[in-house]
Design a protein that fits this description.
Layout: E1 2-7, H1 12-23, E2 28-35, H2 39-49, E3 53-56, H3 57-67, E4 72-75, H4 83-92, E5 95-98, H5 101-107, H6 109-114, E6 120-122, H7 125-134, E7 142-149, H8 167-170, H9 180-188, H10 190-203, E8 210-214, E9 220-226, E10 231-235, H11 241-249, H12 281-291, H13 295-311, H14 317-330, H15 338-358
Parallel strand pairs: 1-2, 1-4, 2-3, 4-5, 5-6, 7-8
Antiparallel strand pairs: 7-9, 9-10
Helix pairs in contact: 3-4, 5-10, 5-13, 10-12, 13-14, 13-15, 14-15
This protein binds NADPH dihydro-nicotinamide-adenine-dinucleotide phosphate, 1-deoxy-D-xylulose-5-phosphate and manganese (II) ion (MN).
1-deoxy-D-xylulose-5-phosphate (DXP) binds at residues 124-126, 149-150, 152, 176, 182, 186, 191-192, 240.
């Protein structure tokens, strides 16, 4: 029986994690829950799962992780505000089931330096797929990683045709039902950029050997190409409960958690290259990842500001990545210790807000 803390329990990842747990009471027990502001839903969940310890906000989430003993902390918080809870989870010695990719990306070596080997289990679907495929070979046998991308709701469009797209259109993800920020990031392809940095940090593969293939069906969740020319892909219908369950029970699988593919009906899986001119965020993220230091934190923080401005109707879709690029270009890297990262984030948010107010 594993004791689980679910951070961000009221969100898309959190609710699906509780569904997995509710269906497998012989495997998991919830010992702590946290949310941002949604006190009512948090209280309902605590009552349903008989949980004594709850927290609201990032600071209380840190205290929760520090005071409640758990085997696994699932970080399903959205945004880089999840950094403190990620660091606390690693310090606690629990396994960190990581959906909150932002904390790894902004924390970089800081997060990696705290993590024992195998302590971080990725929940992001692509990285879960890679982790599963990587069980089949050694690090030296890996030639490259290929992350699949759905392409988002604007796949096939030119940059100019995207100038006036609405927030509602950006939230119409073709294959996944997720929270507002990650869904918007899928529409700009910033999500795939963040995921390249996440893959580099998790699996120690250099950026030249991490590629993206657009796969609109979101059935193949990513692939590992090995040195002998063999490629292993992980495939399953798009349902986050599978990678979430692996995050909670790694290295074991939870029987029945997902519905397998149906091989008795005709289906077509397609793959195509990414259009870098319409979606420059992936190339920019690779540059940022290569530059390292405080650049990834700045990239992410500027994006978070821009995404919120877009949904408040203050800027257009194209302004999101244009703003991120302008902030990254203006950044002077600093030491990437915790203070340095937090300073760089504050600087990036202020800088982004200045640019956004003129957009
Ligand atoms: N949803 C998905 O399918 C996938 C998500 N991810 C990643 O998982 C993470 C969560 O995404 P998702 O579930 O979609 O997001 P949601 O917006 O649906 O949920 C976010 C959760 O974080 C909580 N939260 C927000 N701010 C704080 C804070 N300051 N302190 C504590 N909790 C906070 C929210 O609480 P409240 O309800 O009170 O606001 C909510 O529970 C993101 O990093 C995302 O990129 C990765 C792959 C797939
Ligand atoms: C489900 C998941 O892992 C998301 O991060 C997903 O990858 C988003 O889809 P895109 O491929 O459109 O970014
Ligand atoms: Mn993903």
């Amino acid at each position: 029986m594993r004791r689980i803390i679910v951070l961000g329990s009221t969100g898309s990842i959190g609710v699906q994690a509780l569904d997995v747990i509710a269906r497998n009471p012989h495997l998991f027990e919830v010992v702590g829950l946290s949310a941002g502001t949604n006190r009512e839903k948090l209280a309902e969940q605590a009552a349903e799962f008989g949980v004594e310890h709850t927290a609201l906000g990032a600071d209380e989430s840190v205290s929760l992780v520090e005071t409640v003993a758990a085997d696994v902390v699932l970080n399903g918080i959205t945004g880089s505000v999840g950094l403190g809870p990620t660091l606390a989870a690693l310090r606690s010695g629990a396994t960190l089931a990581l959906a909150n990719k932002e904390s790894l990306i902004v924390g970089g070596d800081l997060v990696k330096g705290l993590a024992a080997p195998g302590q971080i289990v990725p929940v992001d679907s692509e990285h879960s797929a890679l982790a599963q495929a990587l069980r089949s070979g050694t690090h030296d046998e890996v030639r490259r990683l290929v992350l699949t991308a759905s392409g988002g709701p604007f796949r096939g469009r030119t940059r100019e045709s995207l100038r006036d797209v609405s927030p509602k259109a950006a939230l119409a993800h073709p294959t996944w039902d997720m929270g507002l920020v990650v869904t918007t990031n899928s529409a700009t392809l910033v999500n795939k950029g963040l995921e390249i940095i996440e893959a580099h940090l998790l699996f120690d593969i250099d950026y030249d050997r991490i590629d993206v293939a657009v796969h609109p069906q979101s059935i193949v969740h990513s692939m590992v190409e090995f040195t002998d020319g063999s490629t292993l892909a992980q495939a399953s219908p798009p349902d986050m409960r599978l990678p979430i369950s692996l995050g909670l029970s790694w290295p074991d699988r939870v029987p029945g958690v997902g519905v397998p593919l149906d091989w008795t009906t005709v289906q077509t899986w397609t793959f195509e290259p990414l259009d870098d001119s319409a979606f420059p965020a992936v190339g920019l993220a690779k540059e940022v990842g290569r530059a390292g230091s405080t650049y990834p934190a700045v990239f992410n923080a500027a994006n978070e500001q821009a995404v919120h401005a877009f949904h408040e109707g203050r800027i257009g879709y194209l302004d999101i990545v244009d703003t991120v690029k302008a902030v990254v270009d203006a950044h002077e890297p600093a030491s990437a210790d915790l203070e340095g990262v937090l300073d760089a984030e504050r600087w990036a948010r202020t800088q982004a807000d200045r640019i956004l107010s003129r957009a």
